[in-house]
Amino acid sequence: MESVSHSSFAKLLIPLTAIAGALVPYRGKNVPVEVVNRSQTDKTGFFWQRTFFFPGKKPFVFRSVTHHTGEREVTEYVRWGLGIRYKLSVKHGGLFHTDQGYVWKMGKRSIPLPVNLVIGKLYGEEMPVSDTEFAMKMEIVHPIFGQTFQYNGRFSIVG
Prior knowledge:
Blueprint: E1 3-6, H1 8-19, E2 28-29, E3 33-40, E4 43-52, E5 60-70, E6 73-77, E7 82-91, E8 94-106, E9 109-113, H2 116-119, E10 121-130, E11 133-142, E12 146-156
Antiparallel strand pairs: 1-2, 1-12, 3-4, 4-5, 5-6, 6-7, 7-8, 8-9, 8-10, 10-11, 11-12
């Protein structure tokens, strides 16, 4: 990642988000990241494991599973059924993620959570750079506190 950062306001929330296995708790520039994604024939969803290697820190591993939950919509879940819904769109050859709200999955029900009021709304984009590279950015912006979290960088697609 070219940069990973969070605001002073978001730093107060990091202990809570860490329990859920969400939001990278460190800041840094030129942070090596390994992303592995896979599917399983016996399970639904698309499984992600993102490992951030910050100098002098234990690697931070962010695991999630993404499920198709509506027309052009996916929900990405972390621990305990906590998730965020994204509306997906394609523009200028890139994939855009627009926040549709946070949820808590209890059984087959997804209960909306007002987390956007606390941390802000997420926006992400992935733009192709070449056949084997793409640029990516993700940010969360609060209407009062501004940008609370962001990361961006370029990725190479391997095997």
